[in-house]
């Protein structure tokens, strides 16, 4: 059986850490295999070497060697029982760190010191990574504080400018000025879209000193590389962080502009389904519009859009201007076109109402003498939930179509009043009346998104008389019950008031699922309210 000394020596030899034993003069008495194999190709056990003197030779030029020498001497002289330190020991192709620990002990009444070198590279790399990560967090925090400090006043000022303005032009002008007063922004413009020409034009702008403005109109669909066009077409912000890397920079911006602005962001101004335009902002530094900056600008754009919507709503209440829009649509999936194609005839729109459940009921005159075939063709359409004949003539029928949430409902949601919705020879002839340009733009975009080919034929704003037909219609609708309005509309669309009548009261009552007497009660009540409203200002109507 091995003696204690032999067992200890064998165990020391197998340890995976470098170990040496020194005498009280600092000379090496014993090393283990890890010590001897530390340097590739090294076979010397270093026994008899003065370890402390060797370390002291490098002390003048190496602070780690100086600390090691001082620590070992203090242990050998009995000033302390142990000493430890961490130090780098990098090779040409690898970074390494070690911890040296010296411990004093006695053996056979003689002072001995163990010197252990333990590799701590993995731990050190983890510490360095953690510190770098912490520093990055601190840097990001400092940057965020800087951004928040910088934009806090901007948010307040832009909000005040938007809310306090009295017109759309004033909102846009104030917002642009406030933005360029804040570093690092140097140019801002707000563009509006002309629905007829599909052009985006800078309407209001502000810039610092001699910063050049791009003053040419942009065209949707063809100028797709411009940030403003991209933002409008994609309905989300579009950013170029470095114009020096943008291939079309010379195409869109004046010569020398790259010396004054280096990044650009375009943000659409939208409220609900309505697009008011696009805010385009230029910065004097690259990479400005990062994940911290962009959300703040998006929030500002929402504030501006809300203010524009409020201005537009106020204008609608105080002016008598409406937009009249005419277009043709070629798309085989449009239900009216499908119906006209299936019957090889003309389908003419008569009007629209809603039943008690809110289902839209559209009335169309179909040029055919075969009522059953017309109903079958209409019922087969995907957008039609139910079809029935309201009136029959010798050469045509009036169909009542219960519709799902299709294009007619969507147009109504955009504030459109349908004047024409006629189909013939696979082409829809459409005429709409809308409350403002934004609603017209939104409705036209809706049609373009849904159908293959949409051609705008005319677009113009019209001044209405002091009391518009829309006002009269709105007033009447508030006075009529749903049943009264349905009875009146059905009677009108079915030519009940013509002579000879195109339909009987009994047939209209049946279409409403009420008795004949109930139908006439609703109809008479609606007629009375209509006449009262019509003659309310007539002196001869007073008792």
From TrEMBL:
The keyword Transcription applies. Residues 4-79 form the PAS domain. Keywords: Transcription, Transcription regulation. InterPro entries: BAT_GAF/HTH-assoc, GAF, GAF-like_dom_sf, HTH_bacterioopsin, PAS, PAS-like_dom_sf, PAS_4, RNA_pol_sigma_r3/r4-like. It holds the Pfam family GAF_2. This is PAS domain S-box-containing protein. It comes from Halopiger aswanensis.
